[in-house]
Design a protein that fits this description.
Blueprint lengths: L2 E6 L3 H14 L3 E6 L7 H5 L12 H9 L3 E4 L10 H7 L2 E4 L5 E2 L12 E3 H8 L16 E5 L3 H11 L2 H5 L5 H8 L5 E5 L11 H6 L6 E5 L15 H12 L10 E6 L2 E7 L6 E10 L2 E12 L2 E4 L3 E2 L22 E3 L2 E3 L2 H4 L8 H14 L9 H11 L7 H13 L13 H8 L1
Bound molecules: NADP nicotinamide-adenine-dinucleotide phosphate (NAP).
NADP nicotinamide-adenine-dinucleotide phosphate (NAP) binds next to α6 and β11.
């Protein structure tokens, strides 16, 4: 008998969990990687910035995991719509929720519902051609754009807004986004941090890249930088990142038409405008015990687009425990949600870390299964799922379907680009046959 495991979510967390299960049980495990899209790889495909193609090479590893005997991709199947967690627990010996955190954390300030205010899940999904967000109305007719947050997602969004069409056309940025960006009037990008340079969570590479853009100049206000001697307390990686910010201090627009303005010690308090975003109101802050405290001093940042890059939430699943305050499933340290039910990746620990952080996550879930005595119990596994889906008229796709979609995307690519992503699931299913 083989152990049957269902992993929901074919992104990095799902693949590393599958890899760990293969390492543990070899030929004695059957794994179904279930995804609501016919396309695998989750955030590698729809989150990693299009101009960071080298990061996407990790999909070769996931492909090898998926092609190992006994492992299947079951695409176009949505948990909660096509099958429930309870049903999966009846079919498989263990179920792992690796569904990520696809929802934007709300900003929660007056005016955040105005047209022109978007979350980074939507904006990143738009330029990356995610089917959920390909139709997002992105208005780049105003000279200003405000990006809230001091993490890598904020930098990704700023860079995409600031790059030239030539810099982006050889990436896999979605064609609809490239066309909109080509006509963009955005000239002043503002990155709003409620705390200071020492508290920013940008990484060195991401901060450094801003210094090498063809038409954009990053600008840091010298007064926002702490005394240089205080950098000594930072870890070496963070110190290098802050060095980049120091190199942007006191610079002027020069002859580059676009500026990327770091607005440290500013917290967003409102979005204002007549029927759409026209300005972001921010309050100057100071640090107290490491936290941002408002000073009452307000400024208006003119902008027609506000992108909140302030973190994500996992979507709740009816009938499954959910920690509202944390925005994810409540788990113990090993990723247990309940009997035979586990979580890995962002669905377990929130939206943090790098792609590689998901690997130990996956391995610890398999260790927890071992400790919990998960063994082959003769459950129906994939055959049972296939029968259930067939009875509901759900047309699941597999890895060979993905390969057809991938071939069509490669064939449709712009000159020099790796692929042109299909953004319509119905079209994907047509191509998959
Ligand atoms: P992040 O690094 O956690 O940054 C979120 C930012 O939002 C923080 O600066 C936070 O400020 C700020 N924030 C949160 N709530 C706020 C509020 N209500 N008002 C104003 N500011 C608020 O998250 P992320 O940038 O979304 O990235 C998610 C994960 O993906 C991270 O682990 C990131 O490194 C990773 N990622 C990596 C790459 C890459 O390596 N190239 C690219 C993209 C994403 P405080 O610090 O004050 O809370």
């Amino acid at each position: 008998m083989t152990i049957n495991i269902a992993i929901v979510g074919a992104g990095p967390a799902g693949y590393y969990t599958a890899e760990a299960a293969q390492k543990q049980w070899g030929a004695d495990v059957r794994i179904d990687l279930i995804d609501r899209l016919p396309t695998p790889y989750g955030l590698i495909r729809a989150g990693v910035a299009p101009d960071h193609q080298s990061i996407k090479a990790v999909t070769k590893r996931y492909e090898a995991t998926n092609l190992a005997p006994g492992t299947r991709l079951v695409g176009n199947v949505e948990l909660g719509r096509d099958v429930s967690v309870e049903e999966l627990l009846g079919l498989y010996d263990a179920v792992v929720l690796s569904v990520g955190a696809p929802l934007d954390k709300p900003i929660g300030i007056p005016g955040d519902d105005l047209p022109g205010v978007v979350g980074s899940a939507a904006f990143v999904g738009w330029y990356n051609g995610h089917p959920d967000h390909a139709g997002l109305a992105v208005d780049l007719s105003h000279h200003g754009a405000a990006i809230i947050g001091n993490g890598n997602v904020a930098i990704d969004c700023a860079r995409v807004l600031a790059k030239t069409v030539d810099e982006l056309s050889t990436t896999d940025i979605a064609d609809h986004a490239l066309k909109t960006l080509a006509a963009s009037a955005v000239r002043d990008v503002h990155i709003i941090g409620r705390r200071g340079p020492h508290q920013a969570s940008f990484t060195t590479k991401e901060a450094g890249e801003l210094g090498h853009l063809v038409r954009a100049q990053p600008i840091v206000k010298p007064g926002d930088l702490p005394p240089e001697a205080e950098d000594a307390a930072l870890d070496p990686g963070h110190r290098k990142m802050v060095n980049h910010l120091r190199s942007f201090a006191g610079t002027e627009r020069g002859d580059k038409p676009v500026t990327i303005n770091f607005e440290f010690f500013r917290r967003p308090v409102a979005v204002e405008g007549h029927g759409k975003a026209e300005r972001l109101i921010v309050e100057t802050t100071r640090l107290e015990n490491g936290q941002a405290v408002g000073t009452g001093e307000l400024h208006a940042i003119p902008c027609g687009l506000v992108i909140a890059c302030i973190g994500y939430r996992t979507a709740a699943i009816p009938g499954t425990a959910y920690a509202e305050r944390l925005g994810r499933f409540p788990t113990d340290d090993a990723g247990r949600i309940g009997p035979a039910l586990y979580a890995s990746g962002w669905a377990r620990r929130g939206p943090s870390g790098t792609i590689g952080t998901n690997r130990p996550d996956g391995f610890s879930v398999i260790e927890a299964m071992l400790a919990d005595g998960i063994t082959a119990s003769g459950k129906a596994g994939g055959q049972g799922l296939d029968a259930l889906l067939a009875s509901r008229g759900v047309k699941a796709t597999d890895f060979s379907s993905w390969r057809k979609i991938e071939a069509a995307e490669v064939a449709a690519a712009r000159a020099g680009a790796p692929r042109e992503k299909l953004v319509d699931v119905a079209r994907m299913l047509d191509i998959a046959g």
